[in-house]
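Handout for the seminar on molecular recognition.
Each group receives one record of this type.
Step one: identify the two inputs.
Step two: read the structure output and locate the region that could contact 4'-deoxy-4'-aminopyridoxal-5'-phosphate.
Step three: write two sentences on what you found, then compare them with the reference statements printed after the record.
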Amino acid sequence: MNARDIPPSAADAVIRPEIAAMHAYPVADAEGFIKLDTMENPYRLSPPLREELGRRLAEIEINRYPAPSYTRLKALIAEKLGVPAGFDVVVGNGSDEIITMLTTLVARPGACIVAPAPSFAMYPLAAKIAGVRYVAVDLKPDFTLDLPAMLATIERERPALTHVCFPNNPTGNAFAVADIEAILRAAPGLVVIDEAYQPFALDTWMPRLKDYPNLVVMRTVSKLGLAGIRLGYCSGAKPWTDGLEKVRPPYNLGVLHEAAGIFALEHYEVLALQAQLLRESRADLSAGLARIAGVEQFPSRANFILVRVPDSARAIAGLKARRILVKDVGKQHPLLANCLRISVSTPEENALLLAALAASV
Ligand code: PMP
């Protein structure tokens, strides 16, 4: 029998039914589109920096495995990205992998993970893949935390892990600090604050690791301009970072990614300047959206803006016809009906988006 001829029933008997029933994570084909659907930084490194990076990468011994301690990379993350002294850093192949590692870490029989909804899609996905029960607590219609409901759920479920996305994807707002403090005090397990959008909010919980032994702060360099190298990191008290090191695949960052991460962090000021440009563009994009009749926008602390239009299917079709890709989040949660999530981009791309949206609502 040829391997291609394995009858589907044989696979059905082996593959977990909840996995068989899933769809793979959808990623839109962006060929030929202005890509405003995944919150990338639209700016590249300058040509001289790219040449220098090329020379650096050419020297790498790709015949060797990476040294799994990633010492220089972690030291640069700690130094440039504000990890408090005395706290270790764990690196992931994107923070997606850190979410998987955190979920694996707590996946004891009967464990539960709690998070607000709508929030980042990978939290429930990772829980499902790990076979961990996931309890979502709806945000209020203005997308603030429903603190009494969160606290009641934490009391009832005693979650091993609570996710708090700060600022929240896909809503763009940052939850009230006092609400998050109440969650940190009430949670019996780990609380992970996901600061993927920290470069655009500037607020951070990183210095507060000292105050909360149950806190892990997770970030990524993806939104800073390095989405292609897949580098996320987190920090927290030693039992958490030690545990994560045990579930981390030993060589999870390839040598080229490691070297590119080191190079980019050595030029961190370039990335910080690009983030500042995007914060300025966010204000311009928001002002432009406010001028389009029928578009309701929600305040954003991130590098994207969530909008509600009268008919999201019509708007998406109109934008697609004009070769612009944004994320249709309308089906993700009832609170997001007819909502689109739009990345903040260059002034030129923002202007094209605004004109296309005005013609599509
Ligand atoms: N957390 C949040 C809130 C995100 O929006 C994203 C990416 N969209 C991630 C984590 C994952 O980022 P990455 O895997 O690129 O580091």
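Reference statements: The longest helix spans residues 268-290. Residues 39, 94-96, 120, 165, 169, 194, 196, 220, 222, 227, 232 surround 4'-deoxy-4'-aminopyridoxal-5'-phosphate (CB under 6 Å).
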